[in-house]
Design goal:
Monomer. One of its GO terms (biological process) is adenosine catabolic process. This is Adenosine deaminase domain-containing protein. There is one protein chain. The chain is an alpha/beta fold. The protein has an eight-stranded parallel β-sheet. The chain has one domain: Alpha-Beta Barrel (TIM Barrel), CATH 3.20.20. The protein is built from 14 helices and eight strands.
Length: 363
Amino acid sequence: VMDHEVGLFCRELPKVELHAHLNGSVSYQTIEKLIRRKPHLNIEHSMTAIGKGQRRTLEECFQVFKVIHQLVDTEEDILMVATDVIREFAEDGVKYLELRSTPREEKNTGLTKKRYVETIIKAIQQCKNEGVDIDVRFLVAIDRRNGPEAAMETVKLAEEFLLSSDGLVVGLDLSGDPKVGHGKDLLPALQRGRNSGLKLSLHLSEVPSQLEESDLLLNLPPDRIGHGTFLHPEMGGSQSLVDKVLKNNIPLELCLTSNVKGQTVPSYSKHHFKYWYQLGHPSVICTDDKGVFCTDLSHEYQLVASTFGLSREALWNLSQQAIDCIFAPETVKQQLKWRWTDLKHHIFTVTKPEANYVSQTVV
């Protein structure tokens, strides 16, 4: 009973998603449509997702993205993928979403980086015009594998859209294979982006032994941290890294299924969510790549609840506190907080647990 109750509550819960890579969020159904469009590629489903109980190394996860990129190489593909992803998040009760993606150019289809971003903005506007109940913003991603010149080019592109996208482009993401390149080479680009008013969400300490890089990047400081798996001393990080995160009050974007399936965390109970949550530090539950890892945000909340014994009230607070971590302006935060307040009574009434079920808070 309890699991069903919590599951129902997590579905009904209004949610904020702040760490979602566009191409990694493509669902089974959308992949199906893409495969039908491109039969000549001979791509099978098993190549684009990591199913229940499966584990992959981080390297293998990046191979999956390569396959998805082959399927998504025209403006038409991007438009379909982005609108599908936005609708699916909305169906899962996500009220505010920040999508991220690296602008790509495809010589053979004539796709340019600028058109890539424009098409995602078009998808966001299209969903809005259709009345899809979700507020969507976009983070332009820097892929660290592409080096400092490409990073600077991406920042300039993001600056352009920061001014012209009517508030839809709000920041930069730094991602890509964490084992390639060094953050210090990307600092000039990130500093420039920061100075021009773009918010920064940086993948940080995603793999072990990146203390020096993490330290450098934390000095910026970023506005949010993606994963931060190996920041704290118990995971081979250091107290001084933790202190910087706490001092600047930098929220963490935490993705449980992604970390366990990608093998950077051994099990759900060992996830660093517990470490930061016990410190009372802002931690936002996210999906990372809902398509590739076969999950959704409701499921991630349910995992946190069952693994760490969080009550419905604690889950509600977790979801509501995420509003303070978004990159959209204060007016948007205020509107979202009013929405949460409006919905609260309804959700706690609709999903009343059995009278004899007393919540056990473990954390």
